[in-house]
Amino acid sequence: MKKVGQILQEKRKSRGLSLNEVASATKIRKQILVYLEDSDWEALPSPTFTKGLLKNYGRFLGLVSEELLAFYRREFDEKKVKVPTQSLTKPPLFRLTPKLVGGFIISLAVVSILTYLFIQYQSFTGVPLLEVSEPKDNTKVENGQVNVVGKTWPDATLKINGQAVQLSPGGTFSEAVSLAEGINTITITSANRFGNMATEKRTIIAALASSLPGKELNSKLEAEVKVGPSAAFVSIEIDGKTSFEGVLVAGSGKKIQAKSRIRILSKNAGSTKVIFQGSEFVLGKEGETAEKSFPL
Question: Where would you find the membrane-spanning parts of this chain (predicted)?
């Protein structure tokens, strides 16, 4: 007479199933399946649980549960069995608990803090940011100055050709630099509190009007624009041509020379001072747009 285990094993093999596949589908551990197919009832849990296992396994294989249980009762005496406490199904591989969630949140916070501290350490000890947008290297100009515009860290010390330059609150700067006839090298440096320094250099070729063939210096008008206490967008026209248009930070300025006409426009007139023929005046009110042309 066939045993229950033999019936289970033959049916499983006839369906081409492995023990691993059956274990995955039924959630019954592989070792338990081996005990069932070996009819090793002593190694299994209590008869009540064993019957449940036989029903589930038999149902999965397409067998009649009542017939399996009948075979089981004939070959096994339930009264002689001591109930073991072995677990029947696979324990969950992962269970989300409040303790696990709390540990994850704490770990995430620690990683975030360490990342922030590392970034701050890099900003303090690394080379400062230094971007110079104007002028471009190897620029040729026909006047005696050029405006140096850029950005660095707000707490850095910025120098242009060794002279300290005041930074705006955001770390931007705009500074007029005087040029000599010929090749000029402008050196811009930015240093942090630890002495780490970033350096940018610009070569500017100045061909002044007085030295150009066929040109004579005949400036009749002179003016100067100073910006402060706030930055201002300024547009300057000389003899009908735009010579500068951009943002000047507080403390910066531009000197202007023209033959016949100067036009100055500011979108923050209260922070724009104009000096013309020895007279100094504010172009207008803070935040408003105003312009002035010379001669009046």
Answer: 100-119
d(CA 167, CA 141): 25
What average pLDDT does range 87-99 have in this prediction? 64
pLDDT for the residue numbered 274: 93
129-216: in CATH 2.60.40.10: yes
Task: Give me the DSSP letters along 125-136.
Answer: HSPPPEEEEESP
Listing from the earlier edge strand, what are the strands of the sheet with 130-134?
130-134, 145-152, 172-178
pLDDT in tens, 229-258: 998 899 999 999 999 988 887 888 899 999
Q: What 3-state DSSP class applies to 284?
A: coil
pLDDT of residue 186: 93
For residue 179, how far is the Cα from the chain centroid?
40
CATH class, 4-80 region = mainly alpha
**Residue 62 exposed, middle or buried by CB count within 10 Å (0-12, 13-18, 19+):** exposed
Tens digits of residue pLDDT in 170-210: 899 999 887 778 898 999 999 998 888 999 999 999 886 55
> For residues 153 and 129, is the Cβ–Cβ distance under 8 A?
yes
Q: Give the pLDDT of residue 137.
A: 93
List Cα–Cα distances, 74 to 52, 71, 82, 157, in angstroms: 17, 5, 18, 95
- Rounded to 5 degrees, what angle do the CA atoms 102, 106, 112 make? 145
Q: Is the pTM of this model over 0.70?
A: no
Reference 239, options 217, 263, 210; nearest CA is 263
User: What are the structural domain ranges in the chain?
Assistant: 4-80, 96-125, 129-216, 218-296
Tokens of 238: 């000389």
